[in-house]
Amino acid sequence: MVKIAIIQYSTYGHITLLSKEILKGIKFNQNSNLHQVDIFQIPETLSDDVLTLINAPVKPNDIPLITLEKLVEYDAFIFGISTRFGTLPTQWSNFWDSTGDLWINGSLHGKPVGLFVSTGTLGGGQEITIRNSLSYLIHHGLIYIPLGYKPVFNELTDLSTVHGGSPWGSGTLAGGDGSRFPNELELKIAFKQGEDFIKRIAKFYSLDKQENEIVKENKIVKENDIIKSKEREIIKSNNEKTKNACCIVMYLANSVISV
Ligand SMILES: Cc1cc2nc3c(=O)[nH]c(=O)nc-3n(C[C@H](O)[C@H](O)[C@H](O)COP(=O)(O)O)c2cc1C
């Protein structure tokens, strides 16, 4: 069983919408015995007054906050980042700054990571925000899994509509005033990022081998069940035969007595 955490910071909900789509993509067509996927949010650093001033809605209460204890329990991550000045928001860098102990102990070393973003505008940091995040990944020894073009070639090269997302990871454009929300194409790219990520994680953690083991185990259990039910049938039929034989013996005995 591989545990995947989608960890995100979102002020207005754009990143949260992409997170949910990525989660759907991960779960699509996958054996749920082999993976678990959960969404977490990065703790807020702004005061309630500031959040009110910038018209930020209340954070969703169905998405738990990530903690360092929780973080280390997971085998793979997808980080959702809402751009600030072309780079990570304070909420994210504040969280990373609290991971010194994990960094010293190499607790995250070698775990794979996908990334996705939300920016206000095109050219506002779709790719560079992800590039700027790599420093944290590299220092922790985390392994960046880019989206690439292969799973989303048609979507990324579709210029019929404005959209975020790049080979670096899925993305959305919130607009200058935050009023634009992910369109169908951006949601599709996010879904496909999830779908592709779990396939690559499956190879990384040899889940295909584990799946074969489960199939084998299930086959053995089924075969054992068939053998047991055949044995039960044989025992039942033997019991019937014994019962019939007894009846015949008793009948003959009665006949002898009456003669
Ligand atoms: C202080 C601040 C700085 C920002 N800097 C940028 C920026 O450099 N480029 C950009 O495209 N959008 C920028 N934005 C817009 C945010 O990226 C946008 O609100 C965010 O992507 C919305 O996603 P969310 O609702 O998930 O937080 C900035 C917003 C704020 C509040």
TrEMBL record:
GO terms for cellular component: eisosome; membrane. PROSITE patterns: FLAVODOXIN_LIKE (PS50902). GO terms for biological process: positive regulation of ferroptosis. GO terms for molecular function: FMN binding; NAD(P)H dehydrogenase (quinone) activity. Residues 4-197 form the Flavodoxin-like domain. Transmembrane segments: none annotated. Belongs to the WrbA family. This is Flavodoxin-like domain-containing protein. It comes from Wickerhamomyces mucosus.
